[in-house]
Amino acid sequence: MHIVHVIEPMEHGVFIWVIDMANKLVASGYQVTVLHSLRKLTPTNWREMFDPRVDLIHVQMGRAINPVTDTKALIGIYQHIKRLNPDIIHTHSSKSGFLARAAGFLLRRNKQLLYTSHAIHYPLIKHPIKRQIYKLLEHIGYRLGGTIVACSKKEYDIILKEITFGNTKRLIRISNGIDVEQTISKDYNDINKKVKIGVLGRISHQKAPWAFAHIAESIHQKRNDVEFIWVGGGEDDDISLLNKAGVSVTGMLSREAALKEVSSLDIFLQTSLYEGLSLALLEAQVAGIPAVVSNIPGNDEVVQHEKTGFVGNTSKELETFTETLIDSAHRREAMGKAAKQYTIKHFSFDVMGDIYKTHYQRLVDLKQDQSLSRQNDKKIINNKTTAANQKD
Prior knowledge:
Oligomer: single chain
Helix content: 40-55%
Number of domains: 2
Radius of gyration: 23 Å
Structural class: alpha/beta
Order of helices and strands: EHEHEHEHEHEHEEHEHEHEHEHEHHH
CATH superfamily of the largest domain: Glycogen Phosphorylase B
Strand content: 15-25%
CATH class of the largest domain: Alpha Beta
CATH topology of the largest domain: Rossmann fold
Largest sheet: 7 strands, parallel
Shape: elongated
CATH architecture of the largest domain: 3-Layer(aba) Sandwich
Distance between the termini: 48 Å
Number of strands: 13
Number of helices: 14
């Protein structure tokens, strides 16, 4: 089976997800091609992160809406999919998701297409006109065809209510998963001099770095037994904001180095405005790090409140929960170990991958059944025509 993945955001969680999925699929005997864009923060060693058997084709897509860039990207995606003639088209995130669905529609291949949004974010866009534009694009994308895959229950509910209007025929939910073997477990015997609190990810508006900085600054003012770290990089203004609040910023690291840094944390603090189902959070939980996270779709599925971490509704609540964990090493370890067990059981890549493979096969079987049905209909018509001619 030949699967083509289409991805624009080549720099953070979605990028890692596609790498892991592509590598797992080729290891299982699938043929995999990735049509990808490049971003400013795409790791320089991105090619080495893919299995050599994965075919990589560059099609530049822009993040913002731009008629010229988007038209060129659509033409490129259309031409490559037509040439490759894959069994399945699997597209990721809003921009590449829209373009690939448009190409699938033009090629009449949308019935063999999956669109994983990884975070339906238009509800959080503050500008009303811009929010409506992005919502409209999701509506149009849905009309173009393909099956939408929601990564969390709340995301599923939002899409069901606002995009498919209650229609479940082309909407499914598959919770994100991570490759457990790639994570690095926390060594509880290696005790930090200060309680280490951090997060993993690109510094962006989505991650609400100002909220992270506010909590760090507030806690620093009350105690000197903590340190805050942001594992990742971003724009200079955001880095400066974090630095002023006493947060160390590592800059972009290799995946192995980033996971090693995460395994040294005592508390994972995530202040995101939205996520699909955060891979960074899953990686921290599998490493055995208790998490304090904002109450957004996906987070409440991963973190069991007061069992594997805390889910807070406000910045003040997140700060209070963080201090609760700072004050108890025993509770941090107990929650961290519980988080690891729960996440491995429910969010492993093997579990998620098997579900995707089942849906891939279902779509291929559906195409074959439809093809056989058309052939049978054609035979029946031909037989009737022959019989009629013989009577004449």
